[in-house]
Amino acid sequence: MNPPSTTTARRSDRAVLVIAVLCFSSLCAALMQSLVIPIQSELPQLLNTSASNASWVVTATLLGGGVSMPLTGRLADMLGKKPVLVAAASILVIGSLICALSDSLAFVLVGRVLQGVAMGYIPVAISMVREVAPARLVNTAVAAVSATLGVGGALGLPLAAWIAQGHDWHLLFWVSTVLAVAMVVLSVVVLPHVHDAHPARIDVIGAIGLAVGLVGVLVGISKGSDWGWGELSTMGSIVGGVVVLLVWGWYQLRRQDPLVDLRTMSKKPILFTNLAAVLIGFGMMAQSIVVPQLLELPSAAGGLGQTILAAGLWMAPGGLMMMAFAPVSSKLLTRFGGRITMSLGAFVLAAGYVVAVFMTNAPWQLLVASCVVCAGVGIGYAAMPTLILSNVPAAEAASSVSVNTLMRSIGTTVAGAVMALVLTSQTFTLAPGTPEIPTHGAFRLCFLIGALAAAAGAAIVLLIPRRGRTPEVPAEDAAPAVRDELAVAAVAE
């Protein structure tokens, strides 16, 4: 029999391996956000359709993720986290394969929706990593997995641009298929079989109502610039979605086993964290939309004249900055707690946009501003799940983190709509008959709006009641069920 010290060391090593798998898999799922952005302008020709129809290839993933996250989280609380993680990774395999083998818009849209559904992997992984991480790594591990939502989008852009620039566009989806298969295998083999299920009845009507309401609101917001904000289709979609969500909320409050426990969500720490998540998500997406456009705009039009691949490479350090700040966020969480850490992240995010307002004349200047913005996002994203998990029952952990992740996604959707509105409202033409181009002032206004949104998020976080520092994790490495499972695996090795 192995001595206790050896078993403890192996158990710790096993936990680190589990965390690494959760980080890798979450990063792969997050890559789906920006997978098709480099070929977005070519999609109408590639899929033999109109530009308006082709834009659904991007929107479909957003809708799939928005609808699936609360349901995925609820299923993870009911059935256990590992089965749901394996299922999400398997859905990503199927969605990627459909896209890789398709040339028609309809099939690509189906695949992209499934890729969006698979992003439900991320919030469940966040809730699981807190259970498996050794005491010394809890905050760092949560920060790292949470940051993948932003890191994946940032790193996916140059990776996808590099693949699309010299190869057939289907290769993008073959690469995502390989990554998804790796996710499935690693999730099956490495993740522990923890008995963390809390049996309950699935709220089918609640799931359908939430899906209809979210799709209505998100479609209206994301397509508002194309359809026209005053058009009946836009307003009908948004207003109809809001009405459905209000009825859904009334229904949820009367359910014994609701899909989302709105009473828990209405508690001040959860409510204010989720409101701030919308604003910080807005801030993250603002730079992801505006900076590449400014980098790629021709020099004659006041831009920086970079290729798509070059623009992606200028953006990549920002994604790495988010991941690099995971240990910094961990120290901040341990020293000051989630409330101060999240507020600090939002203020750093706002400061990055202020820097961007005055530094738009060279790629390296935008690189500096993006790194500051991403540092703020990394700090803020790390603190969000910590605040959520410390204020909800264990039976609602995955569900609550999923709702928080949905709030971030709503913020990114709103940011896309607002930035598009600003950039199309202040334009000029280089010559008669040429397309209208955003003015330099429009880009600066976008940065200013991002700063104001982040500052508002920081202020909202400070309304969360004080709880002192993040409680110390007990000397034991993990929750009892997880600790026992890791110990068995360590002895077996």
What do you see in this structure?
The chain has 493 residues and is mainly α. It folds into two domains: 4-202 and 259-492, Growth Hormone, Chain: A (Up-down Bundle); 203-258. The chain has helices at 4-30, 43-46, 51-54, 56-79, 81-100, 105-117, 121-132, 138-166, 170-190, 204-227, 232-252, 262-265, 268-296, 308-324, 326-358, 363-389, 397-425, 440-461, 480-492; strands at 427-428, 437-438. Strands 1-2 form a two-stranded antiparallel sheet. Helix 5 runs antiparallel to helix 9 and helix 13 packs antiparallel against helix 18 (440-461). The chain is globular and about 65 Å long. The protein starts with a helix and ends with a helix. Residues 468-484 and 486-493 have low confidence and may be disordered.
Question: Can you give keywords for this protein?
Answer:
19 helices; 493 residues; Growth Hormone, Chain: A; globular; two-stranded antiparallel ribbon; 2 domains; mainly alpha
CATH architecture of the largest domain: Up-down Bundle
- Count of the domains: 2
Kindly name the structural category. mainly alpha
Oligomer designation = single chain
From the spread of the alpha carbons, the general shape counts as globular
Helix content: over 70%
Which stretches are low in confidence, meaning pLDDT under 50 for 5 or more residues running?
A: 468-484, 486-493
SS elements, strand count: 2
How do the helices and strands line up, and which of them pair or pack?
Blueprint: H1 4-30, H2 43-46, H3 51-54, H4 56-79, H5 81-100, H6 105-117, H7 121-132, H8 138-166, H9 170-190, H10 204-227, H11 232-252, H12 262-265, H13 268-296, H14 308-324, H15 326-358, H16 363-389, H17 397-425, E1 427-428, E2 437-438, H18 440-461, H19 480-492
Antiparallel strand pairs: 1-2
